[in-house]
Amino acid sequence: MNTLHNFFFNVYPYICLSVFLMGSLARFDRDQYTWKSDSSQLLRKGQLRWGSNLFHIGILFLFFGHAVGLLTPHFFYEGIMDASVKQRLAIYAGGTAGVLCFVGLTLLLHRRIFDDRIRLTSHRTDIGILVILWVQLVLGLITLPYSYSHADGSAMLVLAEWAQRIVTFRPDAAALVTMDWPYKVHLVLGMTIFLLFPFSRLVHVWSGFGTLAYVVRPYQVVRSRKLGLTPNDPRQP
Asked: How is the chain classified by DSSP, letter by letter?
């Protein structure tokens, strides 16, 4: 068990991050025609609209909430709030976002599995990744009572310390030995999602972030048609 613990929390994070980054780059370079999220919006549009909106609102909040909560050093916010306040904020805000995301994902999963037409046009990886995300959300919601029992923020500080050590290449699996099992399984499955990311429809997340470049993109230069050129002039636009 000690060997498995060290592998999952010292080595496995780097395997998942390496595959996540290099796999995404390789797929974009070699298989751009598969770089998309297949649409089924012509079928059961009402359920899709509710499910997709709730899921995306919840998952975006959870993603950035986890990133900020785990990767922000304690001294950045200790002058504003102590660890216990941050812990309660994470429980209430994260719990609300988690419930929204869970409802939305359940609608999407129900739609994809129980509608024969949608199921027949779905890839196995589409259903598989939705199931994994659903299980991950359930595990995240299970951690809420455990987090509430550690209302002093001690568990959050341990998790944040581990995550910050991972990104600074100073892994320390020993910090997680005493953590409750839902946290550990939630972490391992979360890392596994990063591992599977390049091989699933989740790659369209990169495109979503890529659209932010349009905000700072310079204006497109379009040549005016009022150039006084003849129709056969080679300079004619």
From this structure: -HHHHHIIIIIHHHHHHHHHHHHHHHHHHH-GGG-S----TTSSHHHHHHHHHHHHHHHHHHHHHHHHHHHS-HHHHTTT--HHHHHHHHHHHHHHHHHHHHHHHHHHHHHHHH-HHHHHTS-HHHHHHHHHHHHHHHHHHHHHHHHHHTTTSHHHHHHHHHHHHHHTT---GGGGTTS-HHHHHHHHHHHHHHHHGGGSGGGHHHHHHHTTHHHHPPPPP---S-S---TT-TT--
Q: Is 56 annotated as a binding residue?
A: yes
Q: Where are the domains of the chain?
A: 43-179
Is-contact 48 115, C-beta < 8 A?
A: no
74 is in an annotated binding site: no
Token reading at 38: 């297949």
Whole-number Å distance between alpha carbons of 210 and 216: 11
| Residue indicated by tokens 């997680």 | 176
123 a known binding residue? no
66 annotated to bind ligand:
yes
Q: What is the pTM of this model?
A: 0.83
How many other C-beta atoms lie within 10 A of the C-beta of residue 80?
Answer: 8
Q: What is the CATH number of domain 43-179?
A: 1.20.950.20
Mean pLDDT by 10 residues, the chain (237 residues): 92 97 91 68 71 94 94 88 90 95 94 81 84 96 91 90 95 93 96 94 80 68 56 52
